[in-house]
Amino acid sequence: MEDRRGWVYSPEKRGTMDILWTCGSTLFICLWSMLHLNVPAKHDTQRTILWRKTRWLTLGVLAPEIPMLIACGQWASAKRNHGKMRRLGYKESQWTLEHSFFADMGGFELETLDRDPFPITAKQVTWLIENGFVDLPNITQKEIWDKSNADKFSKFLACFQTGFITIEAIVRTAHGLPISPLELCTIALALTSLTTTSFWIRKPLDVMSAITLHTECTIAEIRKCGGDTSTWMPGHRKSQLEFIEPRPYIFRKWSPIVERFIIRAGLQTQPMSRIPNDRDPQFSNSIQYLSMAFATFLFGSIHFIGWNFSFEKEWELWLWRINCCVVSGLLTLYGTVELIACFREGFQTMGMDTMNGFKLRWPTCLWFVVPGAVYGLGRSLLVVEVLYSMRSLPAGCFEQVKWLSVIPHL
Q1: Cβ atoms within 10 Å of 321's Cβ, excluding its own
Q2: What pLDDT score does 407 carry?
Q3: Phi, psi of 159 (to 5 degrees)
Q4: Rounded distance between C-alpha atoms, residue 120 and residue 206, angstroms
Q5: Quick check: 382 and 327 in contact, CB under 8 A?
Q6: Could you tell me which residues come within 8 angstroms of residue 97 by beta carbon, excluding any fewer than 6 positions away?
Q7: pLDDT of 208-239, one tens digit each?
């Protein structure tokens, strides 16, 4: 007689591939759904856009605090702009938080009598409206979301996967079963990515083209109205309305030096063709800054849970511990120096302009260059060690809590 059975549970053990698949899929979904990059330049190809996303995905693995801080800074900027528009008398139906995000990501471009269209930020849009150079953009919140390619399902899946792998780790610990270093790092990265997503939840996703605002004035007339009588020179990715909002971009803090070299060499002298994604966090008050400082420190502290992880070699354990201390210590050092600088300036000049450009001057710039380089090295070594540890894990890592296998997951 044929052997027949009812409900059959999955095997009570899990394999190395199960761990790799769960962690890998969780990381990819969280990081991919997290990315809300700005509007690309008109000349950007699909290959350029894909390569840009790949770079930011890599950054999300090696230094997840940077996308999180950038997202929080963009959210704070959008909130400030939204409040400014309220004070100018515009109703919520006329200008929403989505409008502010859309403007800050390069969703609007300005065309003057003497210049081709170029991207402008939310602060620049507001200034132009306030001074009568352009009318309020005629686009509704719904139309902005129509231009967006936001995928709610992928965000739900990212939340579900993060919740599952976190609960799994807690349940395994409660049952006396170990977790792998890869799982712990995945939880830390996934939680940080979800925090980043929460700041970008109202930012449109994958908008490919901007809306052109027209003005019957020249750039010189606009600059004169703003009190800037200097002659605009086409610099290396330089905004033509820089007098309204200087470029506070993380990876361009030393661009004045680079720009002088480029112009002297007669190389690339072109205006900014898109709003870069690396805007320096510009928080409005100490509460925002302290909240992000705590979230950043919390990410580094999660790795201390694995202080007594079982590694095959003793030097691996000590490398893990040293990395934990270095990552958390450097994050604390950077946050403390930045906080002191921001309090001194009353949160009026953030980013590279803080304390009169102390991030650009020698030797004070070493407070950021050296820790940043050491941190990058530490994070890279941590990623390598986590992957290397998969060659030899404690036998308990492959034991499975029976009821967890019933929950559908990737």
Answers
A1: 16
A2: 62
A3: -65, -40
A4: 18
A5: yes
A6: 78, 79, 82, 202
A7: 989 999 988 888 888 888 776 555 445 444 66
